[in-house]
Write a structure and sequence with these properties.
The chain has helices at about 15-20, 35-50, 50-55, 70, 90-100, 115-130, 160-170, 180-195, 200-205, 215-220, 225-240, 255-265, 270-280, 290-295, 310-330, 350-360. The protein is an all-alpha fold. The two termini are about 35 Å apart.
Length: about 400
């Protein structure tokens, strides 16, 4: 089932069907859970504290920042320390959130941001456990988790089932009975190909009484060209592909050769690094093939402004910025648009880094504007199929 692993995070939806992940992980020996900063603490601080004690210098109060341990663990001008790891009784933060004096209580009552008893207990327990800070979860390398302990072990067919069942059992819920074969066929076919099963496929699947009939169905659908089309649809959305220019008159454009390249890349099981290189810099490879040049059409998926009074340099700049923002969103998995005007407050992207990346795309000979008619706009290249 190689195709299920294709292109990493976009294949994640298949895991529930295939169940290949975590297969060798032992179950947890204990159910005890420690406080996790990203899961339990950061949401509290972000929602109730960062307005006055975050990284915005303009709104910072009392010189206290709680967004990083380097600031939170330092003595304040008063000599108090907001967080003393392992010692909630010595931590000014704990004293303030538990105070009965409204003039000292944090968050201040006038902010209308009240901590619940559960949130106060989490902050106190977190400090008692050492007040460990963590990077934002998006920048933490994933690790293989331990499988949870569950009661209904017979229901679990793959490790992912164990995590689902753990939450269900915690809420007193029970799994529904397994769907009949016809329903499973329809669900899986629609999910993996975007199409309903044919009558012939229905007849064949219902007639297959072997124990591995479902797994064979998965393999068949993953090998189908329709699966590549279904997966490519998501990639085209992320890449802002369209068959028209957007903006104003929205005239037709002809970018489908790039669309077909994406579908064929999935059908060939192209490695993700090659998929990346060819779309971002296929024209810079040694002796690039026609397909590698077509792959760079990724950077031509932006809008084209055909308004008569458009300022060419303005829209050329907007086009370059669009490439920076789209490329970073897709391949870095985070937005960079804030850094267009200032250093990003919550992601580690500076304005200088944004315009360093901007300079990479700032040499494409086009303006982002064009004629008011259905036509592709330069630069152009012929892109015949092999049989042409």
């Amino acid at each position: 089932m190689k195709r299920a692993q294709l292109f990493g995070f976009w294949g994640a939806t298949l895991i529930c069907c295939v169940g290949l992940v975590y297969a060798s992980v032992p179950p947890k020996s204990k159910a005890k859970k420690t406080i996790d900063f990203n899961r339990d603490v950061r949401p509290i601080l972000a929602g109730k504290c960062f307005t006055c004690h975050g990284n915005d210098v303009a709104t910072s109060k009392a010189g206290l920042r709680l967004d990083s341990k380097d600031h939170a663990f330092k003595p304040l001008k008063s000599g108090d320390i907001a967080i003393v790891p392992g010692k909630p009784e010595a931590s000014e933060l704990v004293r303030r959130i538990l105070s009965k004096d409204e003039s000292e209580l944090m968050p201040p009552p006038e902010t209308k941001k009240f901590l619940t008893p559960e949130e106060k207990a989490i902050l106190k327990q977190w400090i008692l456990e050492g007040a460990e800070y963590k990077s934002h979860w998006a920048f933490v390398a994933p690790t293989r988790p331990e499988l949870p302990l569950i009661k209904n072990k017979s229901w679990v067919r793959n490790p992912i089932d164990a995590f689902i069942l753990e939450k269900m059992e915690a809420k007193g819920l029970k799994p529904s009975p397994e769907a009949d074969k016809e329903t499973l066929l329809r669900r899986l076919t629609l999910d993996l190909t975007g199409l309903p099963p044919t009558l012939g496929e229905r007849t064949a699947f219902l007639a297959d009484k072997t124990s591995g009939s479902y797994e064979k169905l998965v393999d068949r659908l993953l090998a189908s060209p329709r699966f590549a089309e279904r997966m490519a649809m998501d990639w085209m959305d992320y890449s802002r592909y369209a068959d028209s220019n957007g903006y104003q008159a929205d005239y037709e454009r002809f970018q489908w050769r790039w669309r077909d390249w994406v579908i064929e890349a999935y059908n060939k099981n192209m490695p993700f690094d090659q998929f990346t290189i060819e779309q971002i810099a296929g024209d810079m490879l040694p002796k690039p093939t026609l397909d590698q040049l077509i792959a760079t059409g990724f950077s031509r998926n932006h809008r084209i402004n055909t308004e008569g009074g458009v300022i060419a340099e303005e829209w050329r700049t907007e086009t370059v910025i669009d490439r920076v923002e789209t490329t970073s969103t897709i391949w870095l998995g985070l937005t960079s648009g804030c850094a267009r005007c200032h250093d990003h407050k919550y992601d580690p992207i500076s304005q200088k880094e944004f315009y360093s990346m901007y300079s990479y795309f700032n040499n494409v000979p086009e303006t982002g504007s064009g004629e008011e008619r259905p036509v592709n706009h330069p630069p152009l290249m012929d892109a015949p199929y092999p049989d042409q």
